[in-house]
Amino acid sequence: MAAACCSRRTLASWRRPTFIRTSISGQRYTSSSSQIGPSSLSSKSNKSRSSNTRTAKSSAKSATQDELKPLSRPLGVPEKPVIEHQTRLQRLKEVLTNDEAIAEQRKHLVKEAVTKGYFHDLNATRRHGGKTWIAPTVLIREDRSLYFPDIAGKSLADGSEQHTTSMCAGKISVISLLNTKISEIHTASFTAPTLDRFSSHPLFNYLQINIQSNTLKSILVSLFLSSLRRAIPPEQYPYYLVSSQNLEYQREAIGLANDRVGYVYLVDENLRVRWAGCADAMPEEARSLEVCTGMLLNRLQKRKKQTEDKEKSSLEEVQQSN
């Protein structure tokens, strides 16, 4: 019995100091956390101010990055386009045997895999409706401009193959690249004022190119050409092309960043891109296209008149000499 009492006292003596220490530390902790001085309050307020400043700066930076900027470079390819195209077999042979073509293919595949997912174009329409740049307010200088690539397609009039190079040479052309119904609305917002003013001009061209690089979509569009004809005015049939040409390697050059939106290009008589717009037009962009088209038409008309006058005067000199 005495041994049992002794063991109980021993246990109590071991437990009691632990309980006292725990309770004392808890009191100290409570007292230290409840007593907050002016210095701690000021440090907290400074921290909150600095965090608010950082948040404001980051939001301002993101807003600046998200802001649309004007087109910063000429669009087009450096070489003047030709009508001849490589067949798929010729392109495959070049890719397999030409070191430069292999390097180009590898670079392109890596870029596509890293930067572009399956739903990239669709997700991009959530920002500014897919618009990636603002059209220039003036013409791109001729000495800095690049060429519009040759695109082949079947004419809506008779199904014959036509090329933009032969259709646009010697004229001022507005070219619309379409892929979806919304892209038709986009291009119409740009071209409506220009067409109202210059559609009857003898040196003016308006081309619509329905680009369907996807094989399945191209087949579907070919099957529903009759419904497409009902939506297009008959006088526009010869200038409406349905193309299945693969523009994968010209996309970056001509600024074709999103398949879901429409693109409009102003091309001069030498096939150079002098102006470009994308997605839904702002009022000032549509006005800019109209003004720039008028400037190019006036310049071309003056040059043609000067050429005709020279030819006429030279012919008269020849007649007089005879």
Please provide a written account of the structure.
This protein is an alpha/beta fold and 322 residues long. The protein has a domain at 116-310: Glutaredoxin, CATH 3.40.30.10. 53% of the residues lie in helices and 11% in strands. The chain has helices at residues 2-34, 38-66, 88-97, 99-115, 120-124, 164-168, 181-198, 215-223, 225-231, 283-321; strands at 152-155, 161-163, 172-178, 204-211, 240-243, 263-267, 273-278. Strands 2-1-5-4-3-6-7 form a seven-stranded mixed β-sheet. Strand 6 and strand 7 form a beta hairpin. Helix 3 packs across helix 4 (99-115). The model is unreliable at 1-36 and 59-64 (pLDDT under 50). This is ATP10 protein-domain-containing protein. Residues 25-79, 303-322 are annotated as: Disordered. Residues 306-315 have a biased composition (Basic and acidic residues). InterPro entries: ATP10. Residues 31-55 have a biased composition (Low complexity).
Chart the SSEs and their pairings:
Blueprint: H1 2-34, H2 38-66, H3 88-97, H4 99-115, H5 120-124, E1 152-155, E2 161-163, H6 164-168, E3 172-178, H7 181-198, E4 204-211, H8 215-223, H9 225-231, E5 240-243, E6 263-267, E7 273-278, H10 283-321
Parallel strand pairs: 3-4, 4-5
Antiparallel strand pairs: 1-2, 1-5, 3-6, 6-7
Relevant terms:
322 residues; alpha/beta; Glutaredoxin; 7-stranded mixed sheet; 10 helices; 7 strands; globular
How far from one another are the termini? 154 Å
- Class computed from helices, strands and strand pairing: alpha/beta
- Report the CATH C-level class of the domain at 116-310: Alpha Beta
Order of helices and strands: HHHHHEEHEHEHHEEEH
Number of strands: 7
